[in-house]
Amino acid sequence: MEICSHISRIKVTFVVYVLIVNIIIIVENVRSEASPMLENISSSCLTKQSVLGGEHMVCVNATPSYFQYSGLKLNRSHWLTCVRCNLNVIKESTFNFPKNNVSYLNLTDNNILTIEPYSFGKFHILKFLSLKRNPIETIDAKAFNGLRRLLHLDLSFNRFKIVRSNTFAELESLDILNLNWNNITYIHNDAFVGLMNLKYLYLNYNKIKTLLADSFKHLTNLKILYLENNRIREIHPVAFNNLRNLNYLYLNNNSISYLVQYNFKQLSSLVDLQLRSNSLSEIQTSSFNGLSGLKFLYLGQNNLTRIQPYGLIGLNSLLILDLIGNNFKQFSLDNFKNMNSLTTLWLEKNKLRSITVNEDSDPLPALKILDMIDNSLRSFNYKLLSEKLPNIQDILIGKNRWNCDFLLKMYNYYSVRNVSVCLDAKCNANETDQFIKTNCSNVSFHRDSKGRQHHPGEKTGIIEDDEEDAEQNDFVLDSEVVNNGGSNNFNISNLSIGVLLLLLRTTTTTTTNG
Ligand SMILES: *[C@@H]1O[C@H](CO)[C@@H](O)[C@H](O)[C@H]1NC(C)=O
Ligand SMILES: *[C@@H]1O[C@H](CO)[C@@H](O)[C@H](O)[C@H]1NC(C)=O
Ligand SMILES: *[C@@H]1O[C@H](CO)[C@@H](O)[C@H](O)[C@H]1NC(C)=O
Ligand SMILES: *[C@@H]1O[C@H](CO)[C@@H](O)[C@H](O)[C@H]1NC(C)=O
Ligand SMILES: *[C@@H]1O[C@H](CO)[C@@H](O)[C@H](O)[C@H]1NC(C)=O
Ligand SMILES: *[C@@H]1O[C@H](CO)[C@@H](O)[C@H](O)[C@H]1NC(C)=O
Ligand SMILES: *[C@@H]1O[C@H](CO)[C@@H](O)[C@H](O)[C@H]1NC(C)=O
Ligand SMILES: *[C@@H]1O[C@H](CO)[C@@H](O)[C@H](O)[C@H]1NC(C)=O
Ligand SMILES: *[C@@H]1O[C@H](CO)[C@@H](O)[C@H](O)[C@H]1NC(C)=O
Ligand SMILES: *[C@@H]1O[C@H](CO)[C@@H](O)[C@H](O)[C@H]1NC(C)=O
Ligand SMILES: *[C@@H]1O[C@H](CO)[C@@H](O)[C@H](O)[C@H]1NC(C)=O
Ligand SMILES: *[C@@H]1O[C@H](CO)[C@@H](O)[C@H](O)[C@H]1NC(C)=O
Prior knowledge:
Layout: H1 2-6, H2 12-21, H3 23-32, E1 39-40, E2 45-49, E3 55-60, H4 64-69, E4 77-83, E5 88-90, E6 104-106, E7 112-115, E8 128-130, E9 152-154, E10 162-163, E11 176-178, E12 186-187, E13 200-202, E14 210-211, E15 224-226, E16 234-235, E17 248-250, E18 272-274, E19 282-283, E20 296-298, E21 306-307, E22 320-322, E23 330-332, E24 344-346, E25 354-356, E26 369-371, H5 382-388, E27 394-396, H6 404-416, E28 420-422, H7 429-439, H8 467-483, H9 497-513
Parallel strand pairs: 3-4, 4-6, 5-7, 6-8, 8-9, 9-11, 10-12, 11-13, 13-15, 14-16, 15-17, 17-18, 18-20, 19-21, 20-22, 22-24, 23-25, 24-26, 26-27, 27-28
Antiparallel strand pairs: 1-2, 2-3
The structure holds 2-acetamido-2-deoxy-beta-D-glucopyranose (12 copies).
The site of one 2-acetamido-2-deoxy-beta-D-glucopyranose has 3 residues, from loops.
């Protein structure tokens, strides 16, 4: 009876019931609620205060017939949640509450198998409906009829295999539709008919293999489409027809192995396209043509080895290109013709042995960050690169096979020009200093074994090392070599890194001035 004194409004009969049946659960409920006022509405349902201040009715272990015959009143409740109810089949007569004020209906985890036509027809002002984590396999075409004000429908963690035509036909206000974690293999091209206001569609973690023509043709206001973690291999050339307002398309973690020309052409408002963790091995000509407003393109974790001519054509607004974790052995900045907005290029975790740029190609005026971490580079033509990337700020170089001779000269060259050469994305210049000091200290520093002839690759920009520059800097190094006893080796550990860099910096400055 101690509990009674704390919760004065609980009727004696109810307390007895609670003490016998379920004391622990109810006491926990009382503790967890901000306002511990419980009312004995019925043996199964209690009203609490919702976070919005209205009445939240919570029913535990109820059945369909309970809702049908108990005389439950829902005229004051704004929210209704069923916990561990056994609802199996919901019909038009199940929730027969002609007068109700329910805007939120949470039927998560209630063992629902079937939803018959007009099941929710009396919830005239319903805005939120969750049917998450039920074993529903099919839904009748008229199941959601009457829910004209519904904004959010959660059908995740069910067992749908197909999405039939007209399933959501009357949900004209729907904003969010969540179909994640089902078993969907097929979407009828009239499945989404009527969803003229849908903005977010979640189809992650299903088993979709092919995106058929016109799959989303009714979703003219869709902003975000999630199709991650499916088994998509093929995208029909007009799969995305009519999605003219789509801004974000997420196709990560599928099995897409090729893209046809103009695959995304209909997506004229697309800003962000994510194709990470797929099986692309090359980028075909015109794959992204039409995406004139695209700002972010994520192609990481594929198996890309090359970009066909004009493979990136049309991406005139692109800001960021992610090519991390692919299979490129060489890469040419000439792929980026006319991409005058590109600020960031991620080439991390490839197998790059060379990074090139043609002497005749136009500069990339916006590029600020070039990430080459974790490749097999020994050197590149840093002077030409600098010319073609006039606004470069950060060059990320960690985890490569840099030649120490090259590394010192390149580092110095960029330092003078206020370009940060960093080991990782944190871009701490001191770490690069330390790295060079440690790792190049016991490396013998000798002239390029190829001599001073221009090797044939240089004209096309395929550069192993930068001879011209080597010549200029070698002036100082040569005199040191002479002082060291005429050997062709130069022991860098005899100089502090600061002195060394100062030395190189002075030389370059002199050269530049002269
Ligand atoms: C409280 O619930 C019991 C059934 O458990 C019912 O008999 C009783 O009439 C209810 N009291 C009120 C005030 O609703
Ligand atoms: C609303 O329900 C209460 C009981 O919870 C009842 O007394 C009242 O008459 C109902 N009002 C209407 C308009 O149905
Ligand atoms: C239903 O909710 C509206 C506002 O949401 C309120 O004005 C009205 O009084 C409520 N009706 C009942 C019977 O509680
Ligand atoms: C719905 O109810 C379940 C308990 O059955 C709860 O865990 C979940 O957080 C609720 N969902 C929302 C969105 O309120
Ligand atoms: C999906 O289907 C497979 C068999 O095709 C089955 O084993 C699995 O349990 C199903 N998953 C769900 C959530 O229904
Ligand atoms: C991709 O799919 C694999 C296997 O299904 C899974 O283990 C992994 O977590 C997924 N990755 C992402 C980013 O979703
Ligand atoms: C990646 O492509 C290469 C050929 O370019 C191929 O040998 C390899 O099997 C591919 N790897 C995967 C995971 O598809
Ligand atoms: C170098 O860059 C920093 C920050 O980006 C800037 O504050 C500084 O003025 C620049 N110095 C020169 C010489 O351009
Ligand atoms: C880098 O080193 C300089 C001088 O040694 C020091 O003043 C500065 O704080 C260091 N910067 C960082 C980020 O460690
Ligand atoms: C020297 O190189 C190794 C391997 O690349 C690296 O792990 C280590 O951190 C480097 N030393 C310094 C001081 O950066
Ligand atoms: C430099 O010295 C360290 C340890 O003294 C050694 O592990 C490393 O292999 C040496 N590097 C070269 C290039 O000799
Ligand atoms: C470089 O100089 C250090 C100390 O001055 C010495 O221990 C080392 O053996 C020298 N290395 C070479 C390659 O001459």
